[in-house]
Write a structure and sequence with these properties.
The protein is α/β, with parallel strands linked by helices and about 250 residues long. Helices cover about 40% and strands about 25% of the residues. α5 packs across α6, α6 packs parallel to α7 and α8 packs parallel to α9.
Length: about 250
């Protein structure tokens, strides 16, 4: 496939999927991973896409991919991360779970637990967990988004009434300086309250989140006690985690 045709196909695939890995692009374009990396570097230099660790995404920092697309992105990696986090949660624990497709996978992995109390601002999480008779599921009030997330001042106030064992937090992007980034200011305020009111913060972030841009700063990765991901983060992030004694778990 000629270079111009490859670039057009890459742009279409990135637009259709929101994010797509180097491996899949190489398979679709029938070229080597090295060729795809050169293509992506050129497209990124022209500001047509955003390069990520292991793939490429749409070049925007002001809006997230559609929920249906996010559910299918990095599905297997999210499942592994979810299982690893669930393995860290003892029975009869209290926990927050915030908005995100990875945290929804964590909720699914918690169904074999006993006696959990879960406070969430995610309707999808509440729906997954509410059929467990021995679970106490509390859902925050507020404005309901199309993806099932609940946000607003009332949501934040509700979260601030609790102090729990674990806060399970998903994130949209992580900058090279460790900044945790997201797209919705209201969602960020709720996640900040979750971090503040959790004895241990477990951050769930597949490798595509490293280097991904979003406009609103939630905090820094070193505020987590444990970070769960599927590949080694960039070296700068690894150094920050080591410096602040944040446990890194590769799933």
């Amino acid at each position: 496939m000629a270079k111009q045709a490859r670039h057009e196909l890459i742009l279409k695939l990135v637009s259709d999927h929101g994010y797509i890995s180097n491996e899949e692009l190489a398979n679709r374009c029938q070229v080597t991973p090295q060729t795809i990396r050169r293509d992506l570097n050129e497209l990124a230099d022209n500001q047509q896409i955003s390069r990520h660790h292991g793939g490429a995404a749409t070049n925007t920092s002001i809006s997230n991919a559609a929920y249906s697309e996010r559910r299918s992105m990095q599905h297997d990696q999210k499942e592994r991360i979810a299982k690893a986090i669930a393995d860290q949660i003892p029975n009869f624990s209290s926990l927050f779970i915030n908005i995100g497709t990875t945290t929804e996978a964590v909720a699914q992995s918690l169904l074999n637990h006993t006696g959990l109390q879960v406070i969430t601002n995610n309707l999808n999480v509440a729906n997954i967990l509410s059929n467990k008779e021995d679970f106490d599921v509390l859902i925050a009030g507020g404005t309901v988004r199309k993806d099932g997330g609940i946000v607003g001042q009332g949501t934040e106030d509700f979260i601030n009434q609790f102090k729990v064992d674990f806060g399970i937090v998903g994130i949209s992007g992580i900058d090279e300086d460790g900044s945790l980034l997201d797209y919705d200011y209201r969602e960020v305020r709720v996640s900040q309250a979750i971090i503040k009111n959790s004895r241990q913060v477990l951050l769930a972030a597949d490798h595509t989140k490293f280097g991904r841009n979003a406009t609103i700063r939630l905090g820094n990765i070193v505020e987590a006690h444990q970070v769960f991901t599927d590949q080694q983060p960039p070296i700068e992030i690894q150094q920050r985690l080591e410096e602040h004694q944040v446990q890194l778990t590769l799933c």
